Amino acid sequence: HSSLSTDVLRDNLLENYIISVDVGTTSIRCHVYDKEAQIRGSCVTKVNLLYPEPGMVELDPEELWMGFVKVVKGAVQDSGFQMCQMEALGISTQRGTFTTWDRKTGVPFHNFISWQDLRAADLVRSWNNSCTMKALHGVAKALHFLSRNKRFLAASLIVFSTQHVTLRLAWALQNWKRVEAVAQGNCCFGTIDTWLLYKLTKGLVHATDYSNASATGIFDSYQMCWSELCCFLLSLPLSILPKARDPSPPPPPQMADQQAAMFGECCFDVGDVKITMGTGTFMNINTGSQPHTSVSGLYPVVGWKIGPEVVYLAEGNAADTGTAIKWAQKLGESDRWHIPVMALCRDSGGGTFPRINGRRAPLNDPKACASFMGLKPSTTKSHLVRAILESIAFRNKQLYETMLRETHIPITKIRADGGVGTNDFVMQLTADLFGRKVSRPTRHEMSCLGAAFVAGLGVGYWRSREELKKLQSTDCVFLPRNGYGTADGKMTDQYGQVIQSWERALQRSMNWYSKA
């Protein structure tokens, strides 16, 4: 027995592993992966969101860093292995959450401003309605007419959003005096990945990867560099921006969470679609080597740049998927949303739920409100829960139709993950409304796995993407039922009237928070 235990211990010490951290909106989690992409150790800690004023969402930078260190040490300890056996570290982070700090001391000037933060909503509306933007659109349209260059078409359609860093950073530079260090060349800007890399390298590296950079709204995905035009318009100094780089070691490779999830789902081919239903819903389609130019608000992001290869994605999203579920849980329905909803009630009782906190593509209204419409004296909590779950699937359908209409790319496969993706009712209704099969992976934390895959490929732990595809596992495949939808996104009568009511409710809840 002693000899056997010694042999096992020796074999374990000879093996290497990949460690990967995902910094999400509500938690930081770390996993240790083996060659079969199985989790051998884990640790998770909560992200404390701060709400200093209504509409403002912040995170403490030092607390986030301590949480990162905690989960890395905890996951290695949980695995029973040694830190020296960790061959590479991958990092996946939420996007668009940023801070600024002193270049010399590394001390943050302010808390992280979250991607959910709405403090710049009035600034967004003012800029989008400004003469400057109208002039920019006009010039870009003329240039597109003359050259037929899609880059100018993109410029003619560009609008600012609270979800992008652009105007939240402009707000910070205007409102916080401590950021006057900009003028002295002593200010660093960075999203969470940049901050973690800065801390890991003890201030030696101020950099980001292309996937995170492309989601800020300051990055030109066509030229693969920071947009000098955007910086000029908003008075954002180029000197504070990090260097964009490939996600390859060393130092530790970073990826934005949605792009990492796409990689974790092995959506490597043009037409592959990934839906992540977590705190928000993010739907991405692989558009290949060219960024997609959208007229409805789909956003072109860099999926990944590994060596000379650049893969682009088109993305649509909804900000409050998991948030709506948590709100329902506060009604005393904490377990109810996991129960097959057909057993709760046959329908939503005529009620509909247009969601929370603004609308993204294709409606694009940050001033939209949450609301239940069609309530009756007979409406129960079960009806409310069903209306919330239906709204998630309806929003998925809306994004899917927008992608079909805009990209004209044949869909090759659809994979769905995230915490809300564990709900069978949402998954089945999504497949029904799409008129296509939707696969759910066995593993739910795909951002962490994707970052691990990129880190592992970078050091030769895994040799090819074909090898990664063989490691992919599927928990359940949801096949569309007759009478709901068709593969081209068109509706049949089964759910048509309910969706029409939901769409009317969307229109009525728009522009709710505008000031008189």
From TrEMBL:
GO terms for cellular component: mitochondrion. Its EC number is 2.7.1.30. Pathway: Polyol metabolism; glycerol degradation via glycerol kinase pathway; sn-glycerol 3-phosphate from glycerol: step 1/1. Its main location: cytoplasm. GO terms for biological process: glycerol metabolic process; glycerol-3-phosphate biosynthetic process; triglyceride metabolic process. The keyword Iron does not apply. GO terms for molecular function: ATP binding; glycerol kinase activity. It is found in: Cytoplasm. Residues 17-246 form the Carbohydrate kinase FGGY N-terminal domain. It holds the Pfam family FGGY_N. Keywords: ATP-binding, Cytoplasm, Glycerol metabolism, Kinase, Nucleotide-binding, Transferase. CDD domains: ASKHA_NBD_FGGY_GK5-like. Residues 274-456 form the Carbohydrate kinase FGGY C-terminal domain. It is an enzyme of class 2 (transferase). Belongs to the FGGY kinase family. Skin-specific kinase that plays a key role in glycerol metabolism, catalyzing its phosphorylation to produce sn-glycerol 3-phosphate. Involved in skin-specific regulation of sterol regulatory element-binding protein (SREBP) processing and lipid biosynthesis. This is Glycerol kinase 5.
